[in-house]
TrEMBL record:
Its main location: nucleus. GO terms for molecular function: ATP binding; DNA replication origin binding. This is Origin recognition complex subunit 5. InterPro entries: AAA_16 (IPR041664), ORC5 (IPR020796), ORC5_C (IPR047088), ORC5_lid (IPR048866), P-loop_NTPase (IPR027417). One of its GO terms (biological process) is DNA replication initiation. Component of the origin recognition complex (ORC) that binds origins of replication. DNA-binding is ATP-dependent. The specific DNA sequences that define origins of replication have not been identified yet. ORC is required to assemble the pre-replication complex necessary to initiate DNA replication. It comes from the Eukaryota. It is found in: Nucleus. Residues 215-282 form the ORC5 lid domain. It comes from Heliornis fulica (sungrebe). One of its GO terms (cellular component) is nuclear origin of replication recognition complex. Keywords: ATP-binding, DNA replication, Nucleotide-binding, Nucleus. Belongs to the ORC5 family.
């Protein structure tokens, strides 16, 4: 066994090791920081790493398997300081070996929380062991009152109790630290899983009707295709479950055996290429994807379900986006021809003919000034639009949504220039 600690039974450590593969060094480090049950641990620990690096999963299994008294709160669910503090107190009431009916406690301030926390520790008979408070998605604490984060970091000192606060986040500690300074937590980094780690973890989920070697070969093929574009363990688990039935088809039909990797690869390759188009996007549900595979269809058939064509925008934002697209891809000299009813005669010179052979879609979007955008908007909207603050706010919203991008320097407030960043298919869907 890789995990050894004199304070905890060997059977529990062995079970924990089987639950958290490829994270033995991080768990071993945490156990050495925690120490024995009755010992004071470090006041606050900050654990960070990219998404799907096992932070939440490891902490949950570590605290549950070793039966350590703990509170686990997701800061996205409890998004105000009052909700967060009250939830910690409610969970704390059910930590002891004889849990009573948890009753709701009102807690508005940090002072109230310190007083009620002391009472809860005594009533639950937890004075002789460390209580762990785990705050998942801890970056949300920065949106709350300024005193919440510093209070949690030195909760052990404020309450004079044996308590450790563990913050889990995807961002680094430097983005947390208040400008006024605060107690520095002990930082611990969870690195991304390597391709070998992903192979080992994903291979553990093999179906009982197939051999472990057969499923490991499938996972090896899957990672060979997706590892360069996707390191997310949850996404890879989803893809592995979704495409395994297609991989097994030649074996089920008797056309190949489990060791005939060449035939199996030729069968699964086109389906993995299709799946590559929808990595992370979830444009269609799993059942629809399986139905498409059975019909040998193309995911493009389900464009009506695409998240890209279903972006809901306010009425004038749609027209603004269409105007921005026209301004980005049409030359300035064509505005009079397209948007004026009585534009007069326009002579096509040799220069124009020569350059209009190249599609502007191949050349990419060109920047345009704000006044040109508004001029095109007024010409394509049926009714009269007043240039109110509402219109300018919607332009800012389109920039925030990254449908438009600002070009040039931020100090050019009088003539801001923009560029349209969406595709022709997107604009066609909006225009429809």
């Amino acid at each position: 066994p890789n995990l050894e600690h004199p304070a905890y039974p060997a059977a529990a450590l062995l079970r924990l090791e089987s639950l958290v593969p490829c994270r033995e060094s991080q768990v071993s480090m945490l156990l050495s920081i925690f120490g024995e049950r009755q010992q004071f641990s470090f006041p606050s620990i900050f654990i960070y790493g990219h998404t799907s690096s096992g932070k939440t999963y490891v902490m949950q299994n570590l605290l549950k398997t070793l039966q350590l008294p703990h509170v686990f709160v997701n800061c996205v669910e409890y998004f105000t300081s009052q909700l967060l503090l009250e939830e910690i107190l409610v969970q704390l009431q059910s930590c002891s070996s004889k849990p009573e009916q948890a009753s709701h406690v009102r807690c508005n301030t940090s002072n109230d929380f310190v007083r009620l926390f002391k009472q809860a520790v005594v009533s639950q008979e937890l004075q002789d062991q460390t209580v762990y408070i785990v705050l998942d998605r801890a970056e949300q604490l920065r949106e709350m009152e300024a005193n919440i984060l510093p209070a949690f970091l030195r909760l052990q000192e404020l309450t004079d109790r044996n308590v450790t606060v563990i913050l889990l986040s995807e961002i680094v500690w430097e983005l947390f630290r208040p400008s006024t300074g605060c107690f520095e937590p002990l930082t611990l980094y969870f690195p991304d899983y390597s391709i070998g780690h992903l192979q080992k973890i994903l291979s553990q989920n093999h179906p009982p009707e197939y051999s472990a070697d057969f499923y490991a070969a499938y996972i090896n093929i899957l990672l060979g295709v997706f590892y360069n574009v996707c390191r997310d363990l949850k996404e890879l688990q989803h893809l592995a479950v979704l495409n395994f039935s297609k991989y097994c088809e030649p074996v089920v039909s008797g056309e190949a055996n489990e060791r005939d990797t060449r035939k199996l690869w030729k069968n699964i390759e086109p389906h993995l290429k299709k799946a590559m188009q929808t990595v992370y996007l979830r444009e269609i549900s799993s059942s629809q994807w399986e139905r498409l595979q059975d019909d040998d269809g193309d995911p493009g058939q389900l464009k009506g379900l695409s998240a890209h064509t279903h972006v809901e925008l306010p009425y004038y934002s749609k027209f603004l986006l269409i105007a921005a697209y026209l301004a980005s891809y049409n030359p300035v000299r064509t505005d009079k021809r397209f948007f004026l009813k009585h534009h007069g005669k326009i002579r096509k010179t040799n220069f124009m003919k020569k350059h209009e052979k190249t599609s502007n879609h191949l050349l990419g979007p060109k920047p345009f000034p704000l006044d040109r955008l508004l001029a095109i908007l007024y010409s394509i909207v049926d009714n009269r639009v007043a240039p109110t603050a509402n219109i300018f706010t919607q332009i800012t919203s389109l920039v925030t949504l990254q449908l438009l991008s600002v070009v040039g320097h931020n100090d050019q407030l009088d003539v801001p220039r923009y560029k349209c960043t969406v595709s022709l298919d997107f604009i066609r869907a909006i225009a429809r």
